[in-house]
Amino acid sequence: MTDKAKRQRIRKILYWGLPVLAILTVVLAWVLFSASHPELMPGPVAVWNRLLRTFTKPIGRINLLGHAWASLKRVLSALVFAWAFGISFGILIGWNRTARAIFGSIFEVIRPIPPIAWIPLIIMWFGIGETAKVLIVFIGTFVPLVINTSTGIRAVDEINIHVGQVFGGSRFQILTQIVIPTALPHIFAGIRTSVSSGWTTVLAAEMLGATAGLGSMVTKGWNGGDMALVLVAVITIAVVGFILSTLLSKLEKVVCPWNN
Amino acid sequence: MAIDQNDLQRRHAEYLTRKKKENLKYTLLSVLGILLFLGIWQLASITGLADPKRLPAPTTIFQTLIYKVGNTAPDGNTLFVNMLASLQVALSGFGVAILIGVPLGLFMGWWEYADRFMRPIFELVRPVPPIAWIPLVVVWMGIGLQAKAMIIFFTAFVPCVINSYTGIKLTSRTLINVSKTFGASNFEIFYKVGIPSALPMVFAGIRVALGNSWSTLVAAEMLAASAGLGYMIQIGRTVARPDIVIAGMVTIGATGAVLSGLLSAVEGRFLKWQTRH
Fold first, then answer.
1. What's the whole-model pTM score?
2. Do A237 and B136 lie within an 8 Å CB cutoff?
3. Does domain A45-255 have CATH number 1.10.10.10?
């Protein structure tokens, strides 16, 4: 009995001790590395001070939150278009075989080109203004939406469609009342991917030319040898990305609660 | 009413021919779609609707592609040298990510203590988009092969771990219990039941990792490189040669598609048993 209790205690200590140990290891490694190579990697204190300085001495007269908002605004405006066009296009090529043959083939040809590879061309066409950046993010978010939506539509069980036909539903009714609700989890997976891919793409777009946004902060720090600024930007990027994905998980539970 | 065997056969044959005809029709439509797309593009260039300085005709791009095979202008490398440089970076980072990420994910999914220790570290690193690592890695390691492979490693590593972890966590309890009943050790169950049942998910992760690797590679080469396809399109932009940029994009897309096709072939070999049921 005491033996069992003892084992359980060790188990509990390991269970809670290991995560703490892991975090401590990371922090310790960071501190040690930064102490020996301060020019390669600033320590936590330096990063914290640099973070405060982004508010007292804003970069380009925009503080950290302003830069984060600039990036977010680009992603959000691209997402609005991508959701509207991507989901409808996905439904079209998922549902209609002729449309899939004609437009799906064009899409398949363009799809393997990574969104980041579009950046030089878009800059040549539209410069480095806001339109260009939103367009680049749009390309990055459009593709996963179309793929997920059309896969979801095609994955609907034939039987469900037949039941709809037996009950005299029109093709439109079957689409809106059976197929789309069934495909919703897939569509939502597409939305989720589109958000994270949009967040990555906007950084790339900003790193290759911008005056505001977290990506431009990274480049500025990098070019100026200010690694603390780079780290501040990278950490902010990670935090915002984390918040976005948490919000989406919450939203998913509301929109399609049946999806476990 | 008896079923007429001949009638049934005849109907089945009819059904098959109809199906064949339909498939042919849709294949033709696909080809038509692509031809239409290229045709409109070509027409727009010929009629001057699209400025050839911004959007050169498909034929021009084709000529540029042919030209780049033998010539190094304007970026200093022929197309194949660029392609090999890119492939070398992408595949080495991707390979290391699989070698480390997949076993790590499997271990984390199987042994609770490994999970408790690795998970927090992993969750700290995970939300950082791979592109954001580029400046740090470049400052640490320069712009050589190792630095870029390291960046690719970061992108490919995350999906490998997540999918292996989830895959092995989803191993059927029944199968594990059966093995226990037959006296298998924990390691044996991990090896003989857990890993095979996680394989489809593992491959899904590797597929995501491959896509990530290829697209991050382009970013890495655009920001810091002296060769490679990403470098080529970046130079194409600075010297205002849209044909070079588009030719580069086409090569990047085509190579990516070939890589993913190869992965499908490997996956098919490994998961042969899966299609049986």
1. 0.85
2. no
3. no
